[in-house]
Specification:
Layout lengths: L2 E9 L1 H6 L7 E8 L4 E2 L12 E4 L2 E2 L2 E12 L2 E12 L2 E7 L16 E7 L3 E2 L11 E4 L2 E4 L8 E3 L5 E3 L2 E7 L1 H6 L6 E3 L13 E3 L4 E5 L1 H7 L3 E5 L9 E3 L6 E7 L5 E4 L2 E4 L5 H6 L2 H10 L21 H11 L1
């Protein structure tokens, strides 16, 4: 079943009953695996297979969505869904953006006030960006959703050192974009499809995004400990496929001083590596910003930032590994 990811904010249980101005006490990542097109209010109102909900990887035994709220927070007004989840026998209350994104300026200790509310209406998944938002990147302070990362944040890499982000950006593609350019649809790498906790939960990446492969097959065929291969080259391995359910997608890109291998949902994957094919697909404003930060990318001289962190396999080489493993 397709899996969607949401950033949720814990509030006092009294907020659900009285609407009294609350303070956020914690933030979590919630995932919902569902076979239909709506996030329904409860198990009783769900259709098809049961909605499977987790919070920070832990199973939710019961859930109830109550309200569509409008709240005043950090000088602005925004819409949220208000609900309760039961985890480990304890029921707590939460709010979240209908898009699954972070609330503007919201963090632990942030307060807000209720301005209006109506009864909960099922959330249509077609309105959600289903790629990357919520993907957990390992930083010096633990795992963080990529949409929360900023320039200067220190990200931990496979060489057990931390490196500062030099540039981070995003590109949003609509349903029309995906119909016109289906090769830009994300690839879903299901949890555990490349080994135990590799990735730890479903991971969505662009077709050209590369992941790390290792093991005896790589050593035997290429005399290397690790190599990189594109996500599309891993199709049709079990658990890896093009996500045809997405109606829009937001790709996040982050660059360092040089190409790095980072952990995304605990799977080693590459940071952004600018090549000619990627340049052709990029938003020109983003490309210009990158060229200002990395002027060497616009010259024919030394290009440290474009040197891959590991040797890159072609598709036919990746398929050879699959044949050996079969």
């Amino acid at each position: 079943m397709p899996t969607r990811t949401f950033t949720i904010y814990q509030v006092p249980n009294s907020y659900v009953i009285t609407g009294t101005a609350p303070t956020i006490s914690a933030t979590f990542t919630m995932t919902v695996s569902d076979d239909d097109t709506f996030l329904n209010a409860s198990a009783a109102t769900d259709t098809g297979a049961a909605q499977v909900i987790t919070v920070n990887g832990g199973p939710v035994s019961n859930y109830q969505f109550f309200y569509n709220d409008s709240i005043a927070i950090n000088g602005g007004t925004t819409a949220v869904k208000t609900f309760q989840l039961t985890v480990g026998g304890t029921t707590n209350s939460y709010v979240m953006s209908p898009t699954g994104a972070t609330l503007p300026g919201a963090s632990v200790g942030t307060g807000f006030t209720l301005t209006s509310y109506t009864g909960y209406t099922p959330l249509s998944y077609s309105s959600l960006p289903c790629f990357v938002k919520g993907t957990l990147i390992l930083t010096e302070h633990g795992q963080k959703p990529i949409e929360d990362l900023r320039v200067g944040d220190m990200v931990r890499t496979v060489d057990e050192t931390c490196h500062p982000i030099r540039w981070i950006g995003s590109t949003k593609l609509s349903l029309r974009d995906l119909i016109a350019r289906p090769h830009l649809r994300p690839v879903k790498i299901s949890a555990n499809s490349l080994g135990k906790a590799r990735p730890s939960q479903d991971l969505f990446v662009s077709a050209q995004h590369r992941v790390v492969l290792g093991g005896w097959q790589v050593a035997l065929n290429f005399g290397l400990e690790q190599v990189l291969t594109s996500a599309k080259s891993l199709i049709p391995r079990d658990g890896i496929s093009v996500d045809t359910t997405c109606r829009e997608v937001t790709y996040y890109h982050m660059m360092f001083d040089r190409h790095q291998i980072v952990f995304s949902n605990e799977l080693p994957t590459e940071s952004f590596l600018v090549g000619n094919a990627i340049r052709d697909e990029m938003d020109q404003a983003h490309l210009q910003e990158i060229l200002e930060l990395f002027p060497e990318l616009g010259t024919s001289g030394s290009r440290e930032a474009t040197t891959p962190a590991r040797p890159i396999l072609k598709r036919f080489e990746t398929l050879v590994l699959d044949e050996i493993a079969a």
